[in-house]
Amino acid sequence: MTLKHKVAVVTGAASGIGNATARKLAGAGAHVVLADINKETGEKAAADMTAEGMSAKYIPIDVTDAASIEAFRDQALAWQPGVDIIANVAGWGHIEPFVKNTPEFWRKIVDLNLMGPIAVTRALIDGMIERESGKIINIASDAGRVGSLGETVYSAAKGGVIAFTKSLAREMARYNVTVNCVCPGPTDTPLLAAEPEKFLEAFKRATPMRRFAKPEEIADAILFFADDTSSFVTGQVLSVSGGLTMVD
Fold it and tell me: d(Cα 136, Cα 62) in Å, to the nearest integer?
């Protein structure tokens, strides 16, 4: 696979799946914009990639803030003249019974996991339409496909990402812009590691392959959708979960 001369934006790129994705895309030849709210880790991630010979630049973003997204877009387009690939990876969740959720918790979940990808995509999609070329990859979750105990609002937000993906794919097909979705199962990231051990063991037992995904394994699926190998694939949802959710 080659992404030579392509420009990719990856949100949540300072760590976890986002960082693995940034590295995969840059390793395939893309110029990668690492978009993240965490300035210190984002700058270090970009510096490490640059030191390894990759083309990478960190630009700060808060995907829940319209002004931040606008400023990010302007800086990204000042670095490279157009964006060919958008990987909406940034997200957040926490396992907690629905009846213990607060409205503030709901808002954070929805803003980060659903409205964030929508807003970032809208900010960058005009250039793709004008060039009649582009790849948009949204990261949802298997929780959005089948539900997840203790992640009710998170599941709803990720289900919204799946619906957003499919609907946008229909609108963008005439412009040769593909829109696809990757649904990870439990993945070995700092976010998952913060959850209680009893939940982690339960996730492993429920997964036929009896382990968590590596961030690089999720990034491989994103790379497939970003590459021309998938040029006739759009509106699709790919589960990368070790067999956790075997449903149509």
Answer: 19
Q: What is the average pLDDT across 206-212?
A: 71
Q: Which two tokens mark 49?
A: 């990639």
Cα(8)–Cα(140) distance, rounded to whole angstroms? 19
Task: Report the SS3 class of residue 96.
Answer: coil
Which contiguous run of DSSP H or E holds residue 56? strand 55-60
Domains and CATH numbers, the chain: 7-240 (3.40.50.720)
58 part of the active site:
no
| Options 154, 164, 203, 225, the catalytic residue | 154
103-107, 108-112, 151-155, 186-190: least confident range: 186-190
Predicted confidence (pLDDT) at residue 239 exceeds the cutoff of 80? yes
Which amino acid is it at 36?
A: D
